[in-house]
Amino acid sequence: MICASCKTENPDGLKFCNECGAAFRRPCASCGFENAPTAKFCGQCSARINVESAPSAKRSVEAPIRVVETHASENIDGERKTVTALFADIKGSTELMRELDPEEARAVIDPVLQLMMDAVHRYDGYVVQSAGDGIFALFGAPVAHEDHPQRAVHAAIAMREALRRRAGDLPGRPAVEIRIGINTGEVVMRMVHTGGHTEYTPVGHAANLAARMQSATPAGGIVISEDTRHLVKGYFELRGLGPTEVKGVAEPINVYEVIGVGSLHGHFDLAVRRGLTKFVGREGELKQMAHALELARDGHGQMVAIVAEAGTGKSRLFYEFKATLPADCKVLEAYSVSHGKASAWLPVLALLHDYFGIKEADNPATRRKKLRTTLAALDPALADTQPYLFALLAIAESPDPIAQMDLQVKRRRTVEALKRIVLRESLKQLIVIIFEDLHWIDGETQALLDLLAGGIGNARVLMLMNYRPEYRHEWTNKSYYSQLRLDPLGRESAAEMLSTLLGDGVELNPLKRLITERTEGNPFFIEEMVQALFDQGAIVRNGGVKVARSLSQLRLPPTVQGLLASRIDRLPREHKELVQTLAVMGRESPLALIRQVVMPPEGELEPMLAALQASEFIYEALAAAGIEYTFKHALTQEVAYNSMLVEQRKALHERAGQALEAMFPNQLDDHLSELARHYGSSDNTQKALHILNWQANKRRFGQPTPR
């Protein structure tokens, strides 16, 4: 084993380096993520870490992930994924290295590669390969993220900015510029399990195109493809470069240069820009929030949490509620983002910038002046909070009086300072504090939230929060805490929403039924499905909305696919494989049939099914044939099914068909449609033809053909 700290080679099996005493990190056997030495479960995929799976191979310390040649004896697996590929390299590295001694060249290039990899890891990307003068990284694999295109572009911008800062810090060094190409598309992720860890490489045109685009990028530039632009427009400022010839691609492709970060925070901001649909089905929740506001106005502080799955309308509900607030009410808002857990205080910083009126163009002196002026007007006694706020906003004066303070003490005093400001402000006016998407919250913001939760009971403060069901907190015992659960829209409300989007033509009723059935009333899914139909040319607006072509091959919008795939990928490996198996079996699966297909060790299946129920992937029901499990959302089944390789699906379909035959040897004619589906989707064409012939004879003559 090679120590990452001192580069000393050590014997296998050690926990600490013989030379410097640094602890060896534990790689996850499922996803390859490097965990802390004491970790028992993977911090990336939650799989249990085998203590004996400590690194034993001599791995490169320059590139945490490497592409290797595989051997027949290794365990090779794969999965279909939609990913965003990023290629970055140093412009003119050949000329640079030719003019320098090899060690001097390494001293220039290695820190640049490290900056690149740090930016990738900051946004939860995966470094597939670190070459001599560049890196190849993926976002959305091996673990899916619903916003992988945005993460890739954020990482690219972070690389460029870090390199510019480094150039300013090292004026005597040779100038180094990078160029970056980004593309989004479907690939097969090839997983190689070897040496106690897993390595991943993508196979497909999407990754190759990113590499080709990067080679055509100007120095210091970031270019993205049309497919990526479609998913990140509004989140970033872009400039179209027009059709561009890219090596290896027959026709010129449209490419776009990334100028900087845009104004959008998330899906809801994009919906606002497009134009919001009619608000339906949430009148009861608005009334309950209005009641909490009146209690807070009377000095009985309130906390109201909106809990719902992604896309159900949490942000829209807050948007509509804000429109009803009186003018004498001050609103403070904090937004978490999916990549924000690694960035301390991110939502709080945005809230403070808004509260103190700080603009991006303001220099540190101007920012300090605005802060002092606001606090003095609020209460001169708050002057002692200034050093902590200056440090938090990175505008501290020199010398900084709290620079040497213990970090834990500084953190505690900072959240206490923020709480004092909120409570003092509530003496002047009613305060509404909105925290969005707590499932992505960072630790420091969580500490502030916990402190506020314990201190607003007698204040004129209404705290509104929303989050997905997986978020956990300790406020349930507060008498002033209430929780509202948003369910998907009912059929009437979904129909009303679709009428707003598509019109009231009777000829559109089959389309509306199809969308309602597939989305099951999820407002975000409905909007994205309609937008995808327009984008794919399946429906057109020509005076009114018309169906232009068959809807049988309707593709799932990448936004919806990414959101559902990210949920599935965060399951432990065994649970994810069970979800995929259930997806092959069908929307509903009897427990007895699941046992026959999965064939788990004794006592392992029921706990896994219970865990999937608790995570709301499936639900249990009692049917005539006994217990069966049903996917809560048909789209989850579709995403899980499509993530599998074709040969994996075929093998499972055949196994499911064989299990049905074994379970019902004397009632096969009652299961012909299921048998036809499974064998028809397998490689057993002879059996498929036999079942189809059997079905035809039954329909024609009313009698089954003997086996």
Helices and strands, with pairings:
Layout: E1 26-27, E2 34-35, E3 75-90, H1 93-98, H2 102-122, E4 126-130, E5 134-139, H3 148-169, E6 178-194, E7 197-203, H4 205-215, E8 222-225, H5 226-232, E9 236-244, E10 253-261, H6 267-274, H7 283-297, E11 302-307, H8 314-322, E12 329-335, H9 346-356, H10 364-378, H11 386-392, H12 407-428, E13 430-436, H13 443-453, E14 461-467, E15 481-485, H14 491-502, H15 509-519, H16 523-535, E16 539-542, E17 544-547, H17 558-569, H18 573-585, E18 588-590, H19 591-598, H20 605-614, E19 618-623, E20 626-631, H21 634-642, H22 646-663, H23 672-680, H24 685-701
Parallel strand pairs: 6-8, 11-14, 11-15, 12-13, 13-14
Antiparallel strand pairs: 1-2, 3-5, 3-6, 4-5, 6-7, 8-10, 9-10, 16-17, 18-20, 19-20
Helix pairs in contact: 2-3, 12-13, 14-16, 17-21, 18-20, 18-21, 22-23, 23-24
Q: In what range is the share of β-strand residues?
A: 15-25%
CATH architecture label name of the largest domain = 3-Layer(aba) Sandwich
CATH top level of the largest domain is Alpha Beta
Unreliable residue runs: 51-76
Give the strand tally.
Answer: 20
What is the residue-mean pLDDT, rounded to a whole number? 85
Give the radius of gyration.
Answer: 28 Å
Largest sheet: 8 strands, mixed
Contiguous helical run count: 24
Helix-strand category = alpha/beta
Residue share in helices?
40-55%
The CATH H-level homologous superfamily of the largest domain: P-loop containing nucleotide triphosphate hydrolases
